[in-house]
Amino acid sequence: MSSQLKCFLFLLALKITAYASENPPNIVFIVADDLGWNDVGFHGSREIPTPNIDALAYSGVILNNYYVQPICTPSRSAIMSGLHPIHTGLQHCPIKASSPYGLPLDMKILPQYMKDSGYITRAVGKWHLGFHHKEFTPTFRGFESHYGYWSNKIDYFNLTADEDGRMWGYDFRRDMNIDHDAYGIYATDLFTTEALSIISSHNTSRPLFLYLAHLAVHSANPYAPLQAPQAYVDRFSYIKDERRRKFAGMLTKLDESVGAVVTALRDRKMFDNTVIVFTSDNGGPAGGYNNNVASNWPLRGVKASMWEGGVRGSAFVWGPDFIRQPPGTVSDQLYAIEDWLPTLYAIAGGNVSHLPPLDGINIWPSVSAGVPVSRQHLLHSIDPVFHGAAVRSGDWKLLFNASGDGASWDKWFGPSGRNETAPETELSLLIQKIKDSPAGVAVLEKNPDALNNITLTRNAAMINCTAAPDEPSFVCRGQNISDACLFHISSDPCELKDVASEQPDVVKMLLQLFLQYNSTAVPILNKASDPNADPKFWNYNWINWLDFPPPHGVNATETAVFGQPNKFL
Ligand SMILES: *[C@@H]1O[C@H](CO)[C@@H](O)[C@H](O)[C@H]1NC(C)=O
Ligand SMILES: *[C@@H]1O[C@H](CO)[C@@H](O)[C@H](O)[C@H]1NC(C)=O
Ligand SMILES: *[C@@H]1O[C@H](CO)[C@@H](O)[C@H](O)[C@H]1NC(C)=O
Ligand SMILES: *[C@@H]1O[C@H](CO)[C@@H](O)[C@H](O)[C@H]1NC(C)=O
Ligand SMILES: *[C@@H]1O[C@H](CO)[C@@H](O)[C@H](O)[C@H]1NC(C)=O
Ligand SMILES: *[C@@H]1O[C@H](CO)[C@@H](O)[C@H](O)[C@H]1NC(C)=O
Ligand SMILES: *[C@@H]1O[C@H](CO)[C@@H](O)[C@H](O)[C@H]1NC(C)=O
Ligand SMILES: *[C@@H]1O[C@H](CO)[C@@H](O)[C@H](O)[C@H]1NC(C)=O
Ligand SMILES: *[C@@H]1O[C@H](CO)[C@@H](O)[C@H](O)[C@H]1NC(C)=O
Ligand SMILES: *[C@@H]1O[C@H](CO)[C@@H](O)[C@H](O)[C@H]1NC(C)=O
What domains can you pick out in the chain, each with its CATH number? Predict the structure, then answer.
């Protein structure tokens, strides 16, 4: 090799290295609302195909030991702050639309960090971190734009949010402006169209951070909870449960959205330089919980519980140009939802040691290169009002009064989707569907071998348990923490066998850990509902009502809701 050529190659190498750090990847962060462990094909169910989601998962890294919070607000606060909700005051119950509080303003949050790193930051879909004053809303917190809703859920078609049958109003905006044009259009389509328009008009001289937080597959208002275009519901005539058929339509819309986003990235020549994160926000509301029919099978429990079904997330990271593990790697590293802030900051080229102290850790070296994480312990949560808690150390999990709002949610809820007999659910057909899906086509165009390993990956990502009983023989519920249950999660992910009495030393160790976490918890921020928030005073819109003169000249007193005193121990 001539010295001139050597010199050229050397300079080229330098340029490539410099390019990598100066031009960090686009990040598309997709949050599915209320999606169960078993609602994605890559965890083994064949009941409802999710070919686009699966195509990315099977060619990315599947996070199979990854924990989210049991409910929505805590999870979103953890994504945004990098802190566990016991450190933001958002650990108890989601924020009600009419409650005047939100993610505290003294915290610098994810989009602000991304903006500092040179990103264009855009939010589409759900917020749910407070809106009583404008300062709590997305465009005042680091997002350059937001298109979507502020409350916990809306009707999929008319975009209204009902609160406990007492208050009701329209909740849909472009930035701070109420967007009436959106009325009547299926919510998932609104968000997809917006994401596509953001991508196609994106000026690639700066990287894009797109936070795409879907309404799907959350239930809408109680009078019409499960909504999908009829043609989508009709595709699933082989599913007997009518509610699950509607759910399948909602999920299919979500999956198609993922495919459309991938196609848009490809068309804009941004696909190669993009990292896609997909995550659920909490476990699935199964068996009718929240008027919904997600599936966490074979995991135990539902959304809002600290059983595995409530907290084990469905997630993957895709970005073959930045990931040095083989496509379809199934990671069993212990990750948590509060890890995203430091992780995305690192992907953006930031130095994580410059971040303030956080609960989350940078898992990028682990996700991208398989480096084991240093995490030994993990707090699921402590709910000081419901007196429930769950804490994890290594393979062990201690759990006390973990259920949502009643013992009936302590069970295992199907469908399993593994023994489907309909022709539509034949595995070979599903695999072909994955390869033919828009995401599959784009993935294969980049790497023709990327989806050679689907069956192996799928088998590795499944959780198999011995059949669960119909009725649990124990529920880990009692008057004090001496009734706590202990599970060895790696060998008993379905929480079938309480081994607390056999392992008193482990219980003691985990109790200590719980007390340690508990001693750092801040008080809950929950506030009573403010009658002045009622949309009937504001043209039937949910607005940042405390920025305006009160409807009757009197502002409600902002009283805190503290529930009963903590009854642990
Ligand atoms: C919104 O849709 C629900 C049913 O999905 C219906 O009950 C309600 O009346 C609708 N409201 C408006 C304003 O269209
Ligand atoms: C993209 O941004 C760069 C840098 O700000 C600017 O020079 C360029 O004109 C922009 N391109 C378009 C098409 O707006
Ligand atoms: C990150 O910041 C720390 C503290 O300022 C510094 O010691 C370290 O060298 C930095 N790392 C990189 C890769 O720049
Ligand atoms: C599927 O069917 C097989 C054979 O009938 C049975 O052993 C297995 O338990 C079933 N699995 C599920 C998840 O229903
Ligand atoms: C195939 O999948 C298995 C299981 O996830 C994984 O260990 C392996 O590395 C994958 N192989 C290739 C070539 O992608
Ligand atoms: C789960 O069971 C299926 C057979 O039903 C098997 O193919 C798969 O490898 C198993 N996966 C794990 C992780 O045990
Ligand atoms: C357990 O939690 C539920 C709410 O999830 C609560 O109503 C109940 O009082 C709690 N039980 C005890 C013993 O604290
Ligand atoms: C705690 O629960 C145990 C077992 O149910 C019971 O024997 C004990 O009296 C309880 N202690 C307190 C302080 O309530
Ligand atoms: C109510 O709160 C708003 C916003 O904080 C403020 O502008 C207004 O003066 C208050 N009204 C009363 C009657 O206290
Ligand atoms: C947990 O911390 C709270 C204060 O944040 C305290 O009231 C409670 O007693 C603690 N629980 C235990 C079991 O120490």
Answer: 3-375 (3.40.720.10)
